[in-house]
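Predict the assembly for these two chains.
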Amino acid sequence: MNFNPNSSFLYLVAVFIIIFILAQSLFFLLRAYKRGKEIGMDVKKLRNTITSSAIFTVAPAVSILLGVLTLSKFLGLPLPWIRLSVIGAITYELPAATSAASALGVSVSETIESPVVYSAIAWVMTLGILPSTILVPLLIKRIQGGLVSIKNKDSKWGELLITAMFMGMISAFMGMVFSNIRKGLAGWIPIFVMLFSAVLMAVCGILIKVLKVKWLQDYALPICMIGAMAFATIITPAIV
Amino acid sequence: MAIRSYDDKTHYYGKLWIWTAVMVFLFIPISICVYYNAWPPFVSVFKGLLGVAPIFWTVGAIEVITFTPMLGTGGTYLAFVTGNLTNLKVPCAINAMEINNVKSGTEEGDIVSTIAVATSSIVTTLIIAVGVVLLGTLTPILNSPMLKPAFDNILPALFGALGVVYISKNWKLAVTPMLFMAVLFIAVPSLSGSVGVLVPVGAIISIAVARLLYKKNII
């Protein structure tokens, strides 16, 4: 059988996966929304959460779509489409595909023509990421139980612990922004973008808290993010 | 019969969905092998896995431990199926809880986080699907040199804004892990490829600093 990484069969598999993901997300969304109403949370706030999360998601989602396009050059569209719609990210899928292809002595610079190489890549991508999904049902109660017992002992420290975890994540990503500064001025671009985004957020903070522009609160993060991305398109040609 | 709480039921449904998801994930390579009658040699899959699994299994385990307390029950079960945690789902959930003034670990926090993660998953899935359908039209726009810097800088654009909110609230807590990470990445730039491993390192440092400052009544 001739192998085509863009065959209708593979698109069918992709559509099946997409429907599964949408069904699960919708199930959890409706359940949480209903429960929120039941315990007397403000319906308007719940709806605003949906709108603001949706708007925030647009820019990162387009960047994920770019990852699908990058991978599609050698894997066809359906497999990257599947892989980036479920757990996984371009930073994982690309090394996984490269590692599987090189184990079979194939280069990933052109479209895969062998179904064996293709299925090997699909297996490596799947098995490489599966543990994080499997570990959730195995560990979640233990992790939450540990947190509850810390909170019961000392509630202030329990809260501080979660804040510290957030801070750990944020500091790792903010630190990463500095990784190219030894490459000269061009390496500073991410830092300028980060600072611009931070200044925009500070301005939004003033508008929300001092000038009471309440609607802005829900949209401040996407506005700052897209503003800073636009800033990157202006300063990059000027610097590079 | 005892009435089960919302959280208990979330665990029940969460487990049901997540184990189904594991089956669905495995169905992908199996269906390819069966349909094309192309079973890869075990050794090549094993060798391929050897190249990525040691790092990604470790990062995966660390992500579960780090993000579960932040995302709450419903958010965790969903986010670990729909993926893109650090660059999308976790910031989205954190931001939503911040806006609504609810804390993770409470029922309200759980609800808000679940709504944020679910909405974000639906929107991402739809955007990618629309992108795939409109590929011909969108590819030249998305790959245009003018837009490239915007997408190259998506993480600094996100973490600058998110960072300022958290740092302004807890600057005493933020200074040490931030300085440590900045110095580390300047000294060893190649680490940016494995930032996932450094998230728990940052978390451990900031937890240690938090404990110290808390004990001394500084925060």
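Residues 1-133 of chain B form one domain. Chain B touches chain A through 156 residues (CB under 8 Å).
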